Amino acid sequence: MNLKKITRASPVVWSKNNFSPLNAEQISFYKENGFIKLKNIIDQQSINEILNRVMELYNTNGENVVSELQEETIRQIFEIHNEPTLKDFYQHDYVLKAVKQILDDQVYIYQSKINYKKAFTGKSFNFHTDYITWHNVDGMPEPRAINIDICVTEQSFYNGALMVVPKSHLYYVPAENEQPKDQKFNFKDNLQTQDYDTPKTEIFKKLIETYGIEYIALKPGDILLFDPNLIHGSSNNISPYDRIKLMFSYNSVTNKPKKSVRPNYMANHNIEEVF
Ligand SMILES: O=C(O)CCC(=O)C(=O)O
Question: From the alpha carbon of 76, which atom of ligand 1 is closest?
Fold first, then answer.
């Protein structure tokens, strides 16, 4: 497979000569690799507040709560940007400035969630890019969007930390099996099983052989910025430690999807707040 044929045309960093809050080195690392880890962005007291709120939400139920396959254990809680106590984190001054530096536009929350990979029982996420679903299913025109992971509990190789294929964001990798765009399709079940949108095996292998796979180890308070077109995934949590993180996905206001058949909590189209 010739990777040139699937090379991405859209920019990764949309601003030009803007080196604050990320400096020139950080911007070029993000541009080349599709991600960057930033240490100690959220203080420990705030992390404790997040953890308390996560534990309260863990005991709620609703359409936006996804359990592990055939288990009661919670896997994900979506639409957390509507939680007043979590507002300070997706509206965090540094985070928003970095997001807008990369996207060079006003932004809104496209998707938000807690990924709660419980000790012993938390399940894997198959390798995928978010953009393939956002583009094919939701109709997002370009990858002018960004994911921010806020690390709440330590993420390491033993508790299912995220893995990424550096530089894979520079290609549009077709899926082995595309997710249906049919309104009747059970998008929620697919969040548990992830049967669709994994990268085509031959291309995936070639990317790994060329660029490798990297574990993203993070400590509480660290954040990860990553491009929605970056291939990422993670393994089961077989350790006795919960792996908890918040994930906020921001989209540029000039990049709104024209249509989205997925529920609003998966692909927000009620844009009430623009930053
Ligand atoms: O939490 C993880 O390890 C991966 C999450 C992910 O890729 C997703 O929620 O789309």
Answer: 9
Judge if the beta carbon of residue 115 lies within 6 A of ligand 1: yes
Indicate the pTM of the whole model. Answer: 0.96
The predicted pLDDT at position 206 comes to 96
Are the beta carbons of 104 and 68 closer than 8 angstroms?
no
* Alpha-carbon radius of gyration of the chain: 17
- Closest of 20, 23, 8 to residue 144, by C-alpha: 8
Domains, the chain, in order of start with CATH, read 24-249 (2.60.120.620)
pLDDT tier at 59 (50, 70, 90 boundaries)? Answer: confident
Is the minimum distance from the CB of 194 to ligand 1 under 6 angstroms?
Answer: no
Ligand 1 centroid–CA 228 distance in Å is 11
Contacts of 134 (CB under 8 A, 6+ apart): 110, 140, 143, 145, 228, 257, 267
Higher pLDDT, 61 or 47: 47
Mean pLDDT of the chain: 95
